[in-house]
Structures are given as C-alpha cells and as structure tokens.
Amino acid sequence: MAHLTYHSHRLSIAPMLDWTDRHYRYLARLLTKHARLYTEMIHMGAIVYGNKEEFLRFKEEEHPIALQLGGSGAQQLTKATKIAYDFGFDEVNLNCGCPSPKVQKGSFGAALMQDVGLVSDCLKSMQDSADIDVTLKHRIGIDEEESYEFLRDFVGYIALNTQCKTFIVHARNAWLKGLSPKENREIPPLKYAYVYQLKKDFPELNIIINGGINTLELIQKQLENVDGVMVGREAYQHPMFLQKWDQVFFENESGITIEDLIQALYEYTKQELDNYPQLKLRNIVRHYLGLFHGQPRAKIWRQMLSNSDLLSSNRPELILEAYEAIKQ
Ligand SMILES: Cc1cc2nc3c(=O)[nH]c(=O)nc-3n(C[C@H](O)[C@H](O)[C@H](O)COP(=O)(O)O)c2cc1C
What is the pLDDT of residues 261-276, one digit of tens each? Predict the structure, then answer.
C-alpha cells in the first residue's frame, strides 16, 4: 500500500501537453509541496511500446504525481497502468476531455464520453491490474449535449460499475466539430453549477473542479462546494501563483523565496544537463519564462532566457545571470 500514501486532490496542477513535462513539474514542486502534479497526456501505446524511461521518469520530490493516459483500448491501458505503478506513480488518470481532431481520430479523449460502457470497462480493467488510484478527467458534455442529466448519468454509471472515486471535471462542454483545442478551452461556457450539483448528488465521490480558476479567492470559493480544484493555464503561465498555495490551503507553511527558488532552479538545471548530455538548456528554461510576470523587468528575464545565442552555449549559469540582470 506504499503507493497509496498520497491522497489529497485538494489542489492540483492540470495535465498540459508540451507544458507539464518533468522540468515544469520540478519548478511547480519547488513552489508547492502539496499540490498534486499531473504529467502531460501520454498515449498508452507510447508507454507500452516506446521508451518508458523517457516518458515516465520523474523525481522523488514530485510526489504526489499522477500519470495521465490517452487511449481507449482496455488491454493497452491496463498494461500502461501496470507500468505506471511499477514506476511509482500515485495515480493514473484517463483522459476523457481532450477534443483535438487527432485524438478524436484515435477515438479517445472527449469522444469517449459518448461511450460510457467502454470507459467503465477500461477503468475496471486498469484498476484490477494494480494497487493504484485510477481516476477520470472529463468535460460536462459533448457537442449539443448540454443537459446536467447527461453528466449525472455518465458519472453515476461509472461510480456504480467501477472503483473510480475521483472525477476531475473541466466545467465546460467539448465541441468536437468546428473548434480548435484552444477554442475548446475558451468558447464553451463554464458551468460550475453542474459540478456543484454533482457533488450534491454523489457526496461520497471525490469531485474536483477545473476550468478558468485563476486566483486564490476563486480557489477558496470552489473549495466550499467541491473536494478539490485543478488549475491549468494560470499555474503554467504565472508560476509564482503557486507560491502561496501551501500557506493558504495546506499547513500554513511559507513558500520558498525567489532567491532560493532561482538557486534551486540553477542547481536542478545544472544537474539535468550534466546527467543528460543530449538535453538542451532551452527545453528546461522555457518553463521559467513566466516567473516574473507583471514585474517591471520581466521582459529582460524573458528575453535573456529565450535568446538563441545565449541559449546555444547550454550554460545553466544563464539563469543566475538573467536574475542578476533584473535585480539591478
Ligand atoms: C497547452 C495545454 C495543453 C493541455 N493538454 C492537456 C492534456 O494533455 N490532457 C488534459 O486532460 N487536458 C489538457 N489541457 C486542458 C487542461 O488540463 C485544463 O483542463 C484546461 O486548460 C482548463 O483549465 P484552466 O482554465 O485552469 O487552464 C491542456 C491545456 C493547455 C492550455
């Protein structure tokens, strides 16, 4: 049961393709010790047949950490779940919310909400394969299906037929035709009331709300209605937002200072570049660009850390130099 030590979904950082890789997650973990971290969505086939180490490695400090899987075949999802368990993940989350055309073509992501029986079969098989928390992330509906009853029946069926107890609900529909993934995160209206109602109808389930939550006050308000809050874009684009989370929502611990953070990021980057010679500095520091968002000299920081000439040397000291430049 060692794998089930970490239970809290009170606050989490959303799975985001190309964004929540291990380098970003390490930054996030320096800022909040307790929020649950999610990987990017990784296709089950990549895990079963690909370079597992490359896709799945993470640092011990990243716990509690969840792997998000994309796919819809129970057999491969189950194999991938077992592998995730062996790697030490605390949770495996199935993606039922991604509307991208590529994902639709593979019949997974949000399209899966049309086939609750298949989702249940997948979750059951995944759960049976390993002693690990298996959870679901989904939308409130798809296309013209706007009724609360659709959402209630979807969750109700899964709760009845599987051991899945945690439902992470992106509180807007996915429109499978006509909208890009980006538009699908902005245009379908947010309906938080649907998620609150879900908590009322299924008080025994762990209901986590997601979508458009970007201030401490909004998080607080959501926590009065549901069990947890998942934050996506705000956590990535303005990482210092996370600095107050532990203090406000967990154990009153004060967050890391900016000086200590920069030093820790430098040490981390140096170690990564030493350990993985193929790695490029730009792949790590691209996640640091938003750190000084809203501050007068933020532009200098961003310019230095995205300057091709400066990055080409692959020297981690660039982080310290950029910080010196904005401190003056
Ligand atoms: C760049 C980007 C990539 C995303 N990739 C994924 C993904 O891999 N899996 C997933 O379930 N959601 C993905 N999402 C959706 C987020 O997890 C989240 O549901 C959405 O951004 C709404 O939350 P927010 O308003 O706090 O950003 C992605 C969002 C963004 C911005």
Answer: 999 999 999 999 999 9
pLDDT value, residue 4: 34
- For the whole model, what pTM was predicted? 0.96
Q: Which CATH class is domain 11-249?
A: alpha beta
- What is the whole-number distance in angstroms between the Cα of residue 301 and the centre of ligand 1? 26
Task: Work out the pLDDT band at 254, boundaries 50, 70, 90.
Answer: confident
Q: Which residues contact 326 (CB under 8 A, 6 or more apart)?
A: 292, 295, 297, 298, 300, 301
Extents of the domains making up the chain: 11-249, 258-327
User: CATH classification of 258-327 is 1.20.120, yes or no?
Assistant: yes
What is the 139 CA–ligand 1 centroid distance (Å)? 11
